[in-house]
Each structure stands twice: as C-alpha cells, then as structure tokens.
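Quick question, first post here. What does this chain look like in 3D?
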Amino acid sequence: MVIDLLTCKKLSMRPGVIATAVLALALLAGCDLGPNGDQQAQDQQGAAERTAPIGESRTAQAPEQQQPATPPAAPPPAEQPAQAPAQPPAAGGATLQAPPESAVDLAKGEQIYNQFCVACHLTGVAGAPKLGDKELWAPRIAQGRDMMFTHAKNGLRAMPPMGTCVTCSDADLMSAIEFMTGKVE
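> Answer (accepted):
Ran it through. Tokens below.
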C-alpha cells in the first residue's frame, strides 16, 4: 500500500491519531493470549519452585521426591577460634565487602556500563539513578562502596542480580560502579 505525502501530512497534524495507534499497540502487546488457566497455574507454581530460597523444601514435589535440606555444618573445634568468612553470605541482607580500590579498572567499568548498565542507567528506567545525576547518586554514594557493591551483586528492586552481567567478576562490578559514581563526583 502506498501512502501519499498528503496523507502523511494529515496524520502528522493529528497527534491524537498517532497517540491512539501507539496506545492500541501497547494494549495488544500486553494482552494475555498465552496458555489456559491450568497451564498458567502450573507455570506460576514452577516459577515459585525455581525461585524458592535455598534450603526450603520443594512443596510441589511428591514427598518421596523431596530432597532433605542439608544439615548445618559442624562448628569448628573448641581450641580453634572461629574465623569469619572473607565475604559473608548475601542472604538475610548481609552487606558484602567490595573489592579493593586497587582492583578497579575504570576503562573496564566503562565497557561493562556500555554493555550491561546503560539500558537502565542512561534514562532512569524503573528508578535506576541516571549516569551523572548527582542528586540521585548522592544517597547511594553516602551508603558506601560495600552497600553499592551488595546491591549490584544481589540486585535491588527492579535491578536483577549482577545487573544482568552474569559473567562479571566482583572487580568488574565494582569497576562499573566506580565508573558510574565517578561521573557525579
């Protein structure tokens, strides 16, 4: 179908027509034309199983298929003092220790930002602080390197764990954080 120049001009002068078309497309994109209710319930149950915290029993499995939770590790012998792990587990809101500043590579941080972080941090999607926005970054910077690293590693609100960079090392994540915070200081 060929649309002539006059038709294009008429449409461009009517923002309501364009807005209606965009709204219709958005509504169509959000329609649930997927599986029936039973299949949908099974999918939701499967998702709940896959995202259950470690150590919780899998309620969807038959009792004979359930795997027992592993017993806690035995405490160290009394004559040896217990040593704290270098990096406490992330469960329960524990703050992780950020890699040392000597491990940070700002050039690598910029590459990681451009590949994995830019989609949200350039525009502020879902509350992500925009690159260079001092007002949005100030409270996060005030929390300290360890807390920013913990949020990047574990995810926070809409940000997934590792900020979608599942292959990044701890030093890589910290490099990206230092790159972004360096743009506001």
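The chain has a mean pLDDT of 74.
The longest helix spans residues 15-30.
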